[in-house]
Task: inverse folding
């Protein structure tokens, strides 16, 4: 399925302003300003000024929060987003709920305690982000994430992402029965997304520390309906059969 | 959600020809002709003449199969359908693959050996059929069954049915995580069906014989999205709040 750009000039705009460049700029800006965010339940709250507001919005990280403060814009970062900025891009320090800085090991433990699936979900999130996909929650479509080729204002989400881990009790338990498969595939079809299953193999590494992540392997599969009628009428196949 | 009739006169037609009456006629006709079907894998095959062909089609039981035989019409009955005609309506005898008649106890064992979820699915199927719903496979919508108020040629399916059984390993394992919930609810919404969850409580009866079925309890729940915006704008609620 080809990317569905929003409007005529969107593709040109996206090509002129690659996501990798935007994220690099954000990384550099947050590093320079020694940015830090405060843990709050399953989110981290980050206050930034105009330039970084723009960069966070363009990188599609976090959600802006409306507050009475005029000179600062607060952003609410999801767990994967906060850990990605802190652990992967190394441009954000996280402070605990007691206002003390916490390191990546502690943050990893905290995230895991809040969400059993965090190690698998974070591996999937970072895997896609590192490849310059914009990754957002997929809850609206009953999947774990949706992945955009560029900013959602320019393009529709291309992939509906489910994170699985065969034989792993920490996985989300999706796609184990046919009815779930049918439901997911049918919904993906009706919202013009391709189902992308990321199967995470922990390679017996467990979840003790974030260093485990390096050993996790990610296997990507896209799943689509196979329509025998359509395939039969495919001219190239028909021609091959005739030959 | 109101039933969506197909065309203007469909509701009148349905009212004039209740499903309960059609099924009674079929039951009486099959009993008189001492009808029997042959087990074949997960189906039972039944050969009938013109009158019963019409009744089976009107009751929406089985699927007609195209064969070279001119005077007989073959129908392929699903497992729940065959067991319903044999065990519940007592109007069909079933012959095994060795061409010997088998009783309901043996048929029950056979069905269970073919499909682990059979006891739960059959309870759900018969529960709805006894209440004059037309029940068909829900695989197209990623659910276990769909339920129609009358024949599918007159009305769209109203309910997408999932069969659950809390804490039961034989259940289909659906709706255990939020993403599955979101997926199912979203799909049901987009195809204008209400999600009906039938939760079967086996009351510690196991699955040894079909007599267990009498002790199974069925709990019905319909599940819908709750839209806070819509509810807030509901005039009656606003008025009550103002008072």
Result:
């Amino acid at each position: 399925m080809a990317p569905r750009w929003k409007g005529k000039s969107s593709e040109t705009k996206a090509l002129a302003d690659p996501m990798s460049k935007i994220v690099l700029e954000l990384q550099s800006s947050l590093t320079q300003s020694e940015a830090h965010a405060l843990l709050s339940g399953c989110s981290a709250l980050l206050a930034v000024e105009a330039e970084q507001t723009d960069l966070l919005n363009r990188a599609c990280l976090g959600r802006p929060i409306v507050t009475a403060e005029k000179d600062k814009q607060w952003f609410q970062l999801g767990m994967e987003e906060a850990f990605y900025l802190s652990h992967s891009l190394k441009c954000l320090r996280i402070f605990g709920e007691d206002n003390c800085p916490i390191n990546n090991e502690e943050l990893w433990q905290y995230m895991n305690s809040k969400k059993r699936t965090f190690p698998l979900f974070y591996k999937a999130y970072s895997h896609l982000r590192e490849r310059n996909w914009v990754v957002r929650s997929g809850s609206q479509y009953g999947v774990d994430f949706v992945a955009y080729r560029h900013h959602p204002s320019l393009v529709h989400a291309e992939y509906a992402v489910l994170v699985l881990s065969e034989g792993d009790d920490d996985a989300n338990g999706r796609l184990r029965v046919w009815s779930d498969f049918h439901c997911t595939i049918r919904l993906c079809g009706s919202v013009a997304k391709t189902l992308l299953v990321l199967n995470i193999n922990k390679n017996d590494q467990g979840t003790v520390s974030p260093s485990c992540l390096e050993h996790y392997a990610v296997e990507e599969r896209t799943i689509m309906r196979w329509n025998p009628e359509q395939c039969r009428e495919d001219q190239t196949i028909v021609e091959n059969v005739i030959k």
Observations:
- Residues 19-32 of chain B form the longest helix (14 residues).
- The radius of gyration of chain B is 20 Å.
- Residues 186 and 225 of chain B are 8 Å apart (CA to CA).
